[in-house]
Amino acid sequence: MFSNIALRAVLKYSVGALREGVATPWTCCSALLSGTRFSGASGSFALPAPVRHYARTVKKKVAGPESQLNDLPPTMLKLDYAAVPLAQTTDDVVQRLLSLELASHSEKLALKKEQLIAMVQREESDRNSVEVKVAILTSRIRNFQEHLHKHHKDKANKRRMLMAIDKRKKLLKNLRLERYEAFENVCQQLGITYTFPPEYYRRATRRWLAKKAFCIKVFEEVQKKKKAEKLKLKQSAEAAKMQTTSP
């Protein structure tokens, strides 16, 4: 009963407001959506047209570095079953389970590491030479690069990658000084571009020049003092020797 009375009161109020020219909430909403101009008791004004929100352009994904595991065929057996002759004569279902088609990323990475080691190792049982260490670090660095391209905020793996790069630089530097032919072979087989470290350069300021001149002066004075002490010790040793030889 009370709901009917309230509904009648609302309808009566809306009809009276429309007759008097007062803008009701329904008329304001319709005018806002249509962008029309209407007049009220205080004067006429225009509502702005609705803003059209166009769809945003799709951002193009930047192509990352090519994965080092792309050249591994899916029919190749895993590292643990490659030397088993029975694994190559089984049926298709078992070979599929033992192949790289259903292998994990770590298993593929282990097989790739063995391939890089086989390229540069001195002999079949070589597992501790500089060339093998460079191959292992190269496989690890490329895996970090692929991971950081997808997860560029992973600072822990970025730190590990930079540490591995510095370690590989030191190994390549020592290998270049000791055996240059092996260094060239490793860079060619693994596709490494060796860059020389930049030369140390310091801008010569007045303060740096004054400090350098002071340090040189101190060094010369210290050398003079050491030279005088050595001469004094030599003379005392000669005098003692003369005393011991005299009758």
Keywords:
single chain; 247 residues; Helix Hairpins; two-stranded antiparallel sheet
Detail the topology: elements first, then pairings.
Blueprint: H1 2-20, H2 25-34, E1 37-39, E2 44-46, H3 92-98, H4 105-120, H5 130-150, H6 155-178, H7 180-190, H8 206-245
Antiparallel strand pairs: 1-2
Helix pairs in contact: 4-5, 5-6, 5-7, 6-7
Descriptive account of the structure:
The protein has 247 residues and is mainly alpha-helical. Among the domains are: 2-46, no CATH class; 104-190, S15/NS1, RNA-binding (Helix Hairpins). It contains 8 helices and 2 strands, in the order H-H-E-E-H-H-H-H-H-H. It has helices at residues 2-20, 25-34, 92-98, 105-120, 130-150, 155-178, 180-190, 206-245, and strands spanning 37-39, 44-46. It has a two-stranded antiparallel ribbon with strand order 1-2. Strand 1 (37-39) and strand 2 (44-46) form a beta hairpin. The longest helix has 40 residues, at 206-245. The radius of gyration is 42 Å and the shape is flat. The protein starts with a helix and ends with a helix.
Short synopsis of the structure:
By secondary structure, the protein is an all-alpha fold. Among the domains are: 2-46, no CATH class; 104-190, Helix Hairpins.
Instruction: Using the CA coordinates, give the radius of gyration.
Output: 42 Å
Number of strands: 2
Poorly predicted sequence stretches spanning 5 or more consecutive residues: 17-41
Indicate the percent of residues in helices: 55-70%
Which structural class should the secondary elements be placed in?
Answer: mainly alpha
User: In percent, how much strand structure appears in the residues?
Assistant: under 5%
Main β-sheet, spatial strand arrangement: 1-2
Mean pLDDT: 80
CATH-defined fold name of the domain at 104-190: Helix Hairpins
CATH superfamily of the domain at 104-190: S15/NS1, RNA-binding
- Tally of DSSP helical segments: 8
What top-tier CATH class of the domain at 104-190 fits best? Mainly Alpha
One letter per element, helices H and strands E, the order comes to HHEEHHHHHH
Can you name the CATH architecture of the domain at 104-190? Orthogonal Bundle
Major beta sheet, specifics? 2 strands, antiparallel
Principal-axes geometry comes out as flat
**End-to-end gap:** 147 Å
